[in-house]
Amino acid sequence: MNLLYLGLLLFVTLLTTLYLASSKAIFAFSDWTFHAARVEEIYLNLKSGSFFTFIAARTFHNTGAASFLFYPYILFYPWAFLRFILSPVNAFYAWYALVTFATATISYFSMKAYSKKSLASFIFSLVYTFAPYRLYLGGAVFGEYLAVTFLPLLFLGIYEVLWGDKKKWYLLAISGALVAYAHILSVFLSLEFAVILFIIKLITSRGISKDRIKSLLLSAGVCVFLVLPVIVPFFTDFIGQGLSSAKPSISYTMGPRYLLLNSFSAQKGWKLSFMLMLTILTAWAFIKSRRNWIIYGLGLFACFLTTRYFPWKLTAGTPFEMVQLTARYLSYASLFLTILFALGSSSVLEEHVTGRKKLALSCSLAVFMALFSLNSLSVYRDTLKHVQDMPKTSANSTQPAPFKRLRDYNYYNQFNYKILFGAFDYMPKSSLTSVQKQNSLLMHQAYLNGKTLTLSPLIKANQISYQVKSEKAADVDLPVIAYKHTTVSVNGQKHAFRRGNRGTVVVGLKRGQNTVTVGYKASPVFYLSIFISILSWLALLIYLVKFKAKYAQ
Hints:
By secondary structure, the protein is an alpha+beta fold. The protein is built from 19 helices and twelve strands. The strands form three sheets. A five-stranded antiparallel beta sheet has the order 4-3-7-11-10. It has a five-stranded antiparallel beta sheet with strand order 5-6-12-8-9, with no helix packed on it.
């Protein structure tokens, strides 16, 4: 049955992806330009023979922004590699299909391990993978979109450590690492629910055994080793460096009425599906086990967190403000409520369906979900028909990227606009104190001898060079951000520099023509962290092979 269900999941994945890809266009909205620029930088660096990307030399207006250091990007490499064989638009949709099918597969096997029921696992995978909020994330919000892929495995790992087979601690370690490689904020959100589950475990079981505590600590410790390359840059380059990050604030909450009524429309967006809303309204009638009551409670609580009735104002000045958009909790609401929907609906169906009818039912469910998803995506397709193509703009434009249509022939136009959300993330706070400073970076403006110069950068992987002619010895303030491990050379010789009042590289020049090159050289600790991480993944793989062999006996 596994092959049948996986085949049906692949069918829905391909059908929905081809429906979008047939438009031969992309709607560049929300966080699209931020992530597309990061992928473009990775692709161009790979093309030039550099595997690692540290700073934005080719994109982000050549400011040298280090979003790659502090925002995980390893899961974007498949997208970048696809650029070598496919057009820009097709490469994105191929990556979209890979992530979707990975989500469906992980969801299926996670639910199978939890419930031991194939039909329930299939229903869970369909409803979770093609939930309206996840379809919305797949349009532009790619960090969260990737994290959602691994949430079912993460919470399976938490369940096994706290209630199930504690010897399967590795599930929590692996899934926690994968979420961290996708989206750091999702790690924080997941920890909130993990703490709640831990407290529930202490209350319902009147404590927790030492063996389970050991398994929990082991999974956490191994997870840290697996994600060292993500963690280390924060210690080597962020802490104490006066850098900014995404602004912490609760900028949007929903009303319960909006969540309820909006969920009964078929379109994707900040909402639950009507199936999950019906689960909220009716699940209490058929829930029998304490375990399912806990899941139901978590689902309701996640919904409550999305609304303005939760006292979000009390979180001002606390780490909880990092949530920014409370709609993020819809991913967790979808996860928990879909478990109940899948268990309840599969139990009812299996009482009345056997043999060939079960096969027909499975195919019918796949077709229904495919049609439901296509309907959800129809507004996106309609938008692509009516929105204008993104026009050209100057290479140093300060105009924010508009919500426009991208095709293969105008795909590169987006990179000349100011990135709408995230253009100045992880820059020194001093560079953000005025719009003038921000715009001066975007316009490649340098300052020399009291004059403003507009320079044209010469680009290589993780490296930006400028030709600067000075009539006398003087300091030049370049439009490139200075980080702790930034390197500077003048005319091929390593040169000292300081950080200017824009947070940029300031270097002393001699009279005459000078070639100033700004680059980034990662700390040896970073490369050591990669080595340790690879060894940890290999050691864990060897352990799993031996564990499975022993478990089979």
